[in-house]
Every structure is written in structure tokens, then in C-alpha cells.
Amino acid sequence: MSAPEERAALTSRPPSLYSYALRLQHAEPDGWPPERGYALPGPPARKRRFGRSWRETREAVADLLKQLLVDPDAVRAAAEAERRLAAMEPAVRDNQLLFAVRDVVLEDERRARALGRCLTRTGSSPAAVCVGLALLARLGEPADVPCLKALGGLRDLVSPAVYALDTIDRQAAALVWLGHHAKGPELRGLVAALAAEDGIAVRRGLAAVPRDPAVVRPETARRVVEAVRPAGLLEAGEVELPSLSAELTACTGWLLFRATSPHDDRAEILHCSEAVRTYEAFVSYAGALEPTLDHYGLLLSAAFELQSGPSRLHDWGPGRCEALLAELESVLNRPAWQGVLEPGAEPGEGVDRGECRRSDWARRNARRPFRDSVGAVGAVHAEGAVGAVGFVGRAGGVGPNLRIETVVRDPIDSGEIEVRVLIDGRPLVPEAFGRGAANSPEWLLDSGRLRATEEPREVQLAEAYCTEGCCGALHVTIRRDGDEVIWSDLRCPLPPASPLYVREIPEFRFDGAAYDAEISRAENDHAWTWPARETARLIAAGLRDRPDLLTRWKMQLGWAGTDFRDQDRTALCLSYEREDGSPKALMWHIPDDGTLPEARATDALRRLAMVDPRTYGP
């Protein structure tokens, strides 16, 4: 406990949490809370019983607010709220209070705002302050920002304070969030510079942000973009600090790349208020970057995002995404940038294996985000809520409404592979789901799951980054109806993390012949793959044609792909039952020996025909 915390804890009467936070903050030399903020005053709160269902919580909170808002005296209502929340059994968790207040109908917004302000400024319990913060998340104004920032200095209140600030002042919300969550000396230095409003130090701090995915998580990247607003720094940097201009541009691209990572519980770039302006600034200054593999990866990744990623869902205006893609293509087509793609030394000749893998990725994918949409399917129409989730069917089937794109992410971020489904040019999975990337080509394309038959088939398009059992998945039913293919009943068990979420997703009807052609094109598009992954695909195809190769050993194929730790090693997961009936999984790894994928797959299938996989060893 710090000295300011000790002094506050010695007071005989519990202060309001707001006054307590202010006192601690004013005692700090730089006027900013330490990493992870301050503890609440006094001894730890007594343990309380929690056990309300979500429905019971909403009803209890709605009833409480309804009664409190009858009183025109906000001070008296706040005191009553504090008393009743303390006596509530079973208790309601603070995070549940936030979302329960969000759903309450507020008939008198002026009175509700006054109650929220009173609770945040005079409340002495986290529950009371959380109710106030939840009310200000709906009704707060710029005048409330200083109070919310001060409360954000308390570690138990940072999440609800940021939740409220996000609706009023995204820059302030980002700074409070970073104050608690930023790790490492570089990011802590950037936070200090932002708090001190030192423009030169902020520029230098941004240029020094480490290119380490473990340090710059997706939400960290998004919050840095919102707190720093690098677009403005890039525009001013050419005049004020021209020597940092290239570093600022590269760091901006890195932050955008990290904010689009699928390795989180939601697509952070969709929640970034500065995304459009930041992409425009990054692309404008990209041509001044030195042509290196790192910079090539940033530009190519940005192109994939603007072509088919979640970033495409922002409000760009007519043709702006396409214009940025054209600018990126122009830069990458320059001779100096084309030289980056020239094959270098092979691994083992003093060259880093990861660099070779990235170079191969760049060569395979150099043209993919700039391809036109030839072969896309025209939708006959989209039924249901007009404009639901941004999708609008075009009368008469005009325009390219369905496109299937397999996209491989830069291997520096584990090389995630997904099948992006674009309807009317908008990626379906992040818009209707948002909790994880779309499923792999092995799952959706190689298996034939997207093919349409008269028998309806439910297909999982995406699964949450954790698991479906935890945070859900996105499913669709595909069926053929005469000359049309219908996608209907798009559903996910939990409300999506996408900020674009609406409750009803339309039914889509596609011209059957064009649909078949697009699915066939996507299934036969293997230009994205590499030898180890292609070997896995060919083995899986051989096992589908000859299931007896595994059934003779009483085995099944779980999945086929590449090793998570070594993308140049083919991996197959085989499952079987032990003698006691319990399941057992066996991993079979096939190294890259330099032969063609077809030869490796043939050898693997021949070995399966003759030798029990249980004897293969590690």
C-alpha cells in the first residue's frame, strides 16, 4: 500500500470513493495513478452470497431504479440506493449491475442523469458507484469526464469507469484503460507522456512501442490508437519531427495489424473509433517506408483487411476502401518493393527460419487482396429485416453479392487461416458474430460443407476464440430450392460481440448455378497454401476417398493441418478408443523433407495401408 493509500485508510469515516480517488491522485508526483491503480479504502469487503440469475438481476435492478427515480431529490435517492444495494441478498455483482442498468427503460432521463452523477460523486460502495457509472454510460456528458477519470484510478472500478467513458470520450477511456493494463517500460512511458500531454514525448513513445505480440495485445493496440490518435501525429510529424516520420508510420501499421488479430474474444478493430482515419493516414504515408519484409507484411496485411476483413465494416463512404487498396497496390508494385519478394537464402544458411516463412507468405499472397471479384455470385434477394446487419439485397440480382476468400494472416501472428464470406462486399462473420475468426478452409471448403443440396445442412461458419461451449458459434442452414441456393437461420447462441449486432439476420437467396461456380472456385483455390499444409490437405482428401485406411485400425481422422509450433511440419490428429472404451488422441507429424506434397501424401497413405499408426512413435 502506498503512503497516500495509508493516510486515506486511517480516516474514521469512509469517504466517497470519488473523493478518496481524487485525494490519492493529487498526492502523486505526476498526478497519475500507478500501474493497476489504487486499492479500495478500508479492509476487504465481507464475502457476500451471489446467486441471482441474469433475469432476476435485471428485474431487481429495474425495480430499484423505478422506485429511486420517483424521488426528485437526487441526493436522497442516492443515499437510498446505497442502503438498498448493501442490503440486497443475494447480492448483485458489479459487472452485472452495468449490463442490467443498460437494459432498463428510463422515462425521466434528466432525473436519471442527476442520480447517476450523485452516485458517482458521493457513493462509498463499489455497487452504488457502478450503478451511477452505468447511468452515465447512457446519459453522461463531457462535464462528467473528470469524475469518471478519477474513479478509473481505482482498480476495482476501472472497467465500469472505462465502460462509461467509452460512450462520452474515447480518448479519455483509452488513457484510463492503458493506465491499468499497459505493460513494459515502453508502454508505461507512453502512458506517462499522454498523461503529461507532452506532444514530443508522445511521438517518441509511439515510435518506441515494441513489435512484440505478447506485449501489444489486440485491445492494447486499439486503445493506443484511440489514446494517441496517430493520424494527427503523422500529419504533424513531417514538420515537427521529420526524423521520426517513418517510425511513426511503421508503428501505426503495426498497431492496426495487432488490432485486427483474431486471437481475442472479439474483433477489436470494429470497436476502434479512429480506425478509418488511421488507415487513411497509414496508407498515405506508406510509400515513404523503407522496402523491407517487415514493412511489406504491414502493407499486405492492411490490404487484406481493407479487402475482406472486419475493418471493411467501418463507415468508409463510397469507393474509399477501393481507393486505399489501389494506393497500397501501387506502392507494392514499385520495383524496390518487388525486390523484397525475391527468393533469399534457404533456412540453415544463417537465415532465420521465421523470416523465410514470412517471405514465402508474402510471395504467395502478394496479389490476392488486389484481385477483382470476378466469379462472385449475384444474390436474388435478401429476405427478412431490410438492412439488417448492414446487408441489403439488390433487386434483380445485380452485383457481386457473394464472395469466398481464403486468407492467411502474416506468420508473425501465428498465420491464422480463415475462409471469409463476403455478402454484398461485407464480411459476414465479424458483422453477425465477432467473437472469433471464420473457420478454416479444411473445415468449410475441403469438406464440401458449403455445397448446396436439396437436403438442408447446418454449417458452423465460425467458432468463438475460446470454444463454442463457452462463447458460442455462428451457424447457417444451407439448402437448394429449385434454381436457387438459400442461406437461412443464421444463429449464434449468445449475443455477438460485434458492435453492429442486430437481432435479426436476413435470409439470402443466390442463383444456384452461380453459387455452385463460386464454391467450386473457392474449393480449388490453393494458391494460398504451402507444402506442409498442402500435404495435409492431400492426405485428408485421400482418407475421404479411402476411409478403410483408418477404419481397418479402428481409427478416425480428427483434423489435418500443420503443427501449431512449426508450420512447416504436417500434423494429423487420429483418434481411437482404448480397451476400456475411453477416447485417445494420437498426433502424427510428417516433416518437410523437401519432396513434393503429392509424394509425401502418397507415402503417408501407403504407410497407413500397411502399418498401424499406434506404432509410429513421436
Please describe what this structure looks like.
It contains 27 helices and 11 strands. The protein is α+β, with helices and mostly antiparallel strands. The relative contact order is 0.05. Mean pLDDT is 87; it is low at 5-13, 383-389 and 391-400.
Mean pLDDT, rounded to whole units? 87
Count of discrete alpha- or pi-helical segments spanning 4 or more residues: 27
* Rg, alpha carbons: 28 Å
The share of residues in extended strands comes to: 5-15%
How far apart lie the N and C ends? 51 Å
Helix/strand structural class: alpha+beta
Largest sheet: 5 strands, antiparallel
Task: Write a concise synopsis of the structure shown.
The chain is α+β, with helices and mostly antiparallel strands and 618 residues long. It is built from 27 helices and eleven strands.
